[in-house]
Amino acid sequence: MNRREMIAAAAATAGASALPASGWTATSANARPKIGIIGVGMRGRVHLAELLKRDDVEVAAICDVDPWSLNAAQAAFDTAGKPRPRVFEGQNQDDDAGWREMLAQAGLDAVFIVTPWEQHAPQGIAAMEAGIAVGCEVVAGITLQDHWDVLNVQKRTRVPYMLLENVCYRRDVLAALNMVRQGVFGDILHLEGGYQHDLREVKFNAGVPGQAYGGGVEFGPMKDGRGGWSEARWRTEHSVHRNGDLYPSHGIGPCAMAIDIHRGNRFTRLTSYATPARGLHNHIVAKGGADHPNARVRFALGDVVTTMIGCHGGQTILLSHDTSLPRPYSLGFRLQGEKGLWMDINKSVHIEGVSAPHRWDAAQDWFDRYDHPLWQAHAEKAEGAGHGGMDFFVVHAFIEALKAGAPMPIDIYDAVAWSAITPLSEASIAGGNVTVDFPDFTDGAWENRSPIFALDGRY
Ligand SMILES: NC(=O)c1ccc[n+]([C@@H]2O[C@H](COP(=O)([O-])OP(=O)(O)OC[C@H]3O[C@@H](n4cnc5c(N)ncnc54)[C@H](O)[C@@H]3O)[C@@H](O)[C@H]2O)c1
Question: Into which CATH architecture does domain 3-166 fall?
Fold first, then answer.
């Protein structure tokens, strides 16, 4: 059976996946799942807004350590005309009492984890141990061992776990996947993607609640009147101490789905390079002056980190992480096959024999023709949702799979492998750009698993 026949067969039997894949049953999984959210910061409230639009779930509890965010989240319930949730609080970022209490007491079926990266593994593990399904924001963990731990707990408990990787649901990304599956590009040979987003005004602000973007060059927890708020409070610290691709899933997710990683294919090896770190220091000096105390901070994170990943099927993937320099946003996708390619940056497609020789077509013309069934079915509901609508789809997929007792479309293997690119790239750079083997988290199961992601218009 070739790849396209495999996808067609998988689509034909997709209904069978409505059978519980895990043996896990939530008390109310088929009725109205009770959802909790740990972390109602900038991102958590986007998920909250999507959940509050739905009548098939109850957002029963929220937890945070930031009073401003808790107030803003509770106000969202009033605006939506929904009853306020139980509120669990902690004192500071390192305080795990609030979320542990919520997992123990709130009677949840599922929890969204939308906290700083370093908390995702312990919170995901605790939720699964408590029998609570997990929708985890990117990333799954920090160290390689974190990823094994999250995986092993999921395999033992069989509690559903989905990485909430929204870019997999971007309209152009899904149309391109549709084209891949219909053979328009021929076999895919090379892919590119990344996280190329000027985050200087995200990594630094004035520490004022409600003002997440810019306005100062502070970062870290508030101390002696200085510190950051939102991501500046925790994310910037990762740029001080770590050098690797710190945010791989937006780029790798769509690439992995296009070449059936963990479903007939797998990552085999990885090599990373990093440029010098200039951008964050330059930003501090430009906005805060050369005498600002943060001008003395030495950042470990190279401004542009590039990672080459080899795959069992022979494909190559080039990933970029570029968050500290002036640049317009672009995830820089490129899907290239035997017959042609899509390049995101110039919004262009070229297909031999259809496009004029050596000329680009406007990608939109192709994407209109190959619009994915998911977008055809739900575009109206996605209108107004975050990131051009894709934030609707990632929440929708998690909830619908949960209610159906079906396998999660972005599952535990995807979660740990995509996310483990970070510690592997750090190891490659620290070792002098050595090539490192990619662990087979599936223990050989990748060979015989069939694709399930976005096979039809359901979720
Ligand atoms: N997929 C996407 O497009 C996307 C976009 C933005 C952020 N994210 C991810 O979402 C996550 C959160 O990012 P954000 O931008 O909302 O950051 P944020 O700092 O605005 O929100 C994090 C929240 O977690 C809370 N928190 C911290 N420690 C806690 C604890 N011990 N207990 C309970 N709550 C605690 C903070 O007070 C804060 O309100 C990150 O993993 C980030 O990478 C994803």
Answer: 3-Layer(aba) Sandwich (3.40)
Model confidence at 31, pLDDT cuts 50, 70, 90, reads: confident
**What is the Å distance from ligand 1's center to 117 Cα?**
8
Please name which of 406, 396, 405, 395 lies closest in space to residue 452, comparing C-alpha atoms: 406
Atom of ligand 1 minimally distant from the CA of 249: 1
Gap from CA of 113 to ligand 1 centroid (Å): 8
Superfamily of domain 168-373+412-448: Dihydrodipicolinate Reductase; domain 2 (3.30.360.10)
Report pLDDT digits (tens) over 8-17.
Answer: 455 444 443 3
Structure tokens at 104: 């123990």
Average pLDDT of the residues in 264-290: 98
Strands 133-136 and 58-64: unpaired
For the Cβ of 116 lying below 6 angstroms from any atom of ligand 1, the answer is yes
**Among 398, 412, 419, which residue's Cα sits nearest to residue 442?**
412
Tokens of 239: 């740029």
Place of tokens 């067609």: 8
Among 249, 246, 243, 244, smallest CA distance to 231 is for: 246
Give the closest residue (by CA) to ligand 1 atom 28: 93
For residues 111 and 88, give the distance between their C-alpha atoms in angstroms, rounded to a whole number: 13
3-state secondary structure of 195: strand
Q: Where are the domains of the chain?
A: 3-166, 168-373+412-448
**Cβ of 384: how many Cβ atoms within 10 Å?**
11
In DSSP terms, 271 is beta-bridged to 308
Q: Which of 38, 42, 167 to mutate to test the pocket of ligand 1 (most atoms within 8 A of CB)?
A: 42
Distance of alpha carbon 325 from alpha carbon 302, whole angstroms: 10
- Rounded Cα distance between 283 and 301, Å, is 14
Q: Which residue is it, tokens 């509890």?
A: 61
* Mean per-residue pLDDT of the chain: 94
Global confidence as pTM: 0.95
How high is the pLDDT of residue 5?
Answer: 54
Name the one residue in this structure whose structure tokens are 């005004």. Answer: 201
